[in-house]
Amino acid sequence: MRQAVIGAVLLAVGAVCVAFGLLPLPELAALAARVLPVLGFVLGLTIVSELAADAGVFDRLADVAARVGGGRTIGLWGAVVVLAVLCTVFLSIDTTAVLLTPIVITLARRVGLPPMPFALTTVWLANTASLLLPVSNLTNLLAVDKIGLDGPLPFAGLMVWAALAGVVVPCAVLLVVFRRSLFGRYTPVGLRKASDPVFFWAASAVLVALVVALTAGVEVWVAAVAAAVLLVVVAAFRAPSELRPSRVPWSTLVFAAGLFVVVETLHATGVTDPIVHALGGGTGSGSLLLLGGAGAVAANAIDNLPAYLVLEPAAGHEALRYAALLVGVNAGCLITPWASLATLLWHARLTAEGIHLSWGRYIALGCIVAPLTVVAGVFALAI
C-alpha cells in the first residue's frame, strides 16, 4: 500500500510537470512508448508466477531439489542455488524473492535444517543473479534497447561473465558465513502430489512455453501477457477462487509509472546533468568501476530502479558502461533494506514464516558481499 501511495504522489507530481511544460508532450509520448511494454511484461509475468505457485509448480521444484541433494545438506543447498538462479534468470528477481523464498523455507523445515542459509541465498541471488537476461530485472529491460542489442542472446553475451561473478561471489560468502550449517546430512522427502494435476501440468506447460518464448526473442510483453491470459483461462475452470484483483501488481505498476515520469522530468530539465558529467566517460576499468560503484551507492540510497533511471544518461552510448551500471544497481543493492523492492518483500515473507533476521545483521553481511560482487562483476566485463 505504501508503494502505491508513493507512486500516486509521483504520478501527481509528473502530471503537474507536464501541465507546466517541464516535461514536453513529445518526450512524454516517447517515454510512454518505452515503458508501457515494460509494465505490460511486469503485469503478465506477475500473474503467471502467482498462478503457477498456486498450482504447485514451485513446490514440486523444491521437492525435486531435495531429492537431488541426496541427503547431504551441501547438495541440497547447491540444488537451491541452481533453482534460485534459474528462477531469477528466466522469471525475474521478484519471483525468486517473493514466491520461491517461502517454498525454500518450508523445504528446509521439512527436512529438519535451519532455514536461514537457504532464505538468505534466495534474496542475495534474486538480486545478484539478475544480470544475465533482459527479463531477469526491470532495469535490464530498460537498458537493453538503449544498448542497441538485438534480442536476449546478445545481451547475455555481454553480461555472461558479470552474471557468473554475481552468482559465485555471494555463494562463496554464504559458504563461509554458514559453513557449520551447510555441511551435514538430512533425510530426503518424497514428492508432494499436486492438488489439481490438470492445473499443475497446464501451469508447468505455460511456464516452459514462456521461458522458451522469452529466450527466443519474442517481444517480452507479448509473451508474458499471452501466457497470463492463457493461464487465467485455465484457472477460471480449474481454480476460479485464485482469480482475485490482488493478483494484479497495482502498487508496482503505479509506483514504476510515477517514477518514470518524475525522473524523465529531471533529465529534461537538466537537474541530473552534474551527476552525469561527474561520472565522466570511457570504458577503462577505472571508469567502469566508478560508474558501477556509483550505481551501487545510489541503489542503496534510493532503491535500484530510480538509481538506474537517474544514472542512465551517464552510460552514454557505450554497451560496457550500461553493463557496469547494471552490475552496480543490480548486484550492489544488498546493503540497505530499501535498495531493492524484492528485498523488502522477501523480509515480509520471512516475518510471515516466523523467521527473524535483524536489519542490522543483514546490512553487516551486505557490506561484505555487495562491494566484492560489484568489483568482481565490473572486472568480469573486461574478459
TrEMBL record:
Keywords: Arsenical resistance, Cell membrane, Membrane, Transmembrane, Transmembrane helix, Transport
Cell compartment(s), UniProt: Cell membrane
Superkingdom in the source lineage: Bacteria
Residue ranges occupied by any Citrate transporter-like domain in the UniProt entry: 8-317
Endpoints of the signal sequence: none
Pfam families found in the cross-reference section: CitMHS
Membrane topology recorded in Swiss-Prot or TrEMBL: Multi-pass membrane protein
Membrane-spanning ranges: 76-105, 117-135, 155-178, 198-214, 220-237, 249-268, 288-311, 323-347, 359-382
UniProt entry tagged with the keyword Transmembrane helix: yes
UniProt record similarity statement: Belongs to the CitM (TC 2.A.11) transporter family. Belongs to the ArsB family.
Name of this protein: ArsB/NhaD family transporter
